[in-house]
What we know:
Blueprint: H1 2-26, H2 32-58, H3 64-83, H4 90-113
Helix pairs in contact: 1-2, 1-4, 3-4
Amino acid sequence: MKHLHMLMAVIVIVLFLYQSYLILSTNKQTPRVIKISNHIVYALVLLSGAWMLFQLLNANAPVQWVIAKMVLFVAAISASIKAFNNSATPSQRKTGILIAAAAYVGIVVLAFAKPGNLF
Length: 119
């Protein structure tokens, strides 16, 4: 399950970078197939992450960093929704992409560091 989760996380970041490129450089909207695949990949990330969280909880492992990752993931999705909205202004798009990128960087750092006493 860990490998599926990591693969889906990489795909989420690649899709985010592709959508950001389309919006910032060519000012085109994302194709429908990318939007649909984005939803499917988000669902797989959440399901595989929830499965691994239950395994961590059963092993009594510290999960504070997982909670921080979930908060950052919600922030990244929220900022992405605003950035890739058809009615967003260019400054809103740039700000949303910046916030989402910062959240994804934070998620990757937490995934590699796995700090035991985050809070």
